[in-house]
Design the sequence.
């Protein structure tokens, strides 16, 4: 069945460091891909998305490119801030409109 | 628009009791989803509605779970004869169907503790 595998955490970085959180997926057909973020004490929020191969989603300095050849959707940010500390979830929506989430990666950014 | 709301926010119950949760989606959103999330895991899909029709149901959803969306607006999720393994955060999300896009907006969740 469809699934998402994302890099295990926790990840701890210093402010202004480069961030990569790996995400790979298994799916039949052509899924849409998403990154969601959950800040401490808050609900899940959509961070960015890509609906077809080679699309790049971007928001708040974060980027992810839908790579069909490597079945990946890695999240990157060039310079993280303390306010980026959160749990990040990679997800896919299959052609039947079911969503599959990864287990989440906790990021802590220290000043 | 105040976003997706869920009630109650917390529920503590004894094993064997029935519980019901409510989700009010963003108005005009015709799709509504239920998920379960346990500590350290991502949300697990349970079921989803388009308007009042329940279109998908996960194999994870046992017979003790039932969901309704009678008028295509709010939805309820009922768990009968609760078990300790049902303890989790139950999340609701809504979206509006648009071509090539289906952005879900999540509610704050209902945390269920079964004693």
Sequence:
């Amino acid at each position: 069945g469809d699934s998402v595998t994302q890099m295990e955490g926790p990840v701890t970085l210093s402010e202004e460091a480069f961030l990569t959180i790996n995400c790979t997926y298994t799916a039949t057909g052509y899924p849409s891909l998403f990154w969601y973020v959950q800040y401490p004490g808050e609900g899940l929020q959509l961070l960015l998305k890509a609906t077809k191969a080679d699309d790049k989603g971007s928001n708040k300095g974060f980027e992810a490119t839908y790579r069909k050849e490597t079945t990946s959707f890695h999240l990157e940010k060039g310079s993280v801030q303390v306010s980026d500390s959160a749990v990040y979830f990679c997800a896919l929506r299959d052609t039947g409109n079911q969503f599959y989430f990864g287990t989440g990666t906790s990021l802590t950014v220290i000043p | 628009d105040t976003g997706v709301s869920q009630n109650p926010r917390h529920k503590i119950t004894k094993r064997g009791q029935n519980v019901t949760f409510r989700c009010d989606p963003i108005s005009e959103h015709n799709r509504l989803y239920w998920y379960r999330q346990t500590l350290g895991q991502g949300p697990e899909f349970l079921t989803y509605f388009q308007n009042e029709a329940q279109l998908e149901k996960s194999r994870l959803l046992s017979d003790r779970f039932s969901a309704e969306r009678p008028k295509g607006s709010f939805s309820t999720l009922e768990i009968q004869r609760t078990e300790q393994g049902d303890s989790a955060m139950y999340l609701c999300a809504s979206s509006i169907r648009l071509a090539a896009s289906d952005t879900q907006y999540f509610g704050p969740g209902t945390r269920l503790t079964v004693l």
About this structure: Chain A has a mean pLDDT of 94. The longest strand of chain A covers residues 86-93. The interface with chain B takes residues 4, 32, 36, 42-46, 49, 51-52, 89, 91, 93, 96-104 of chain A (CB under 8 Å).
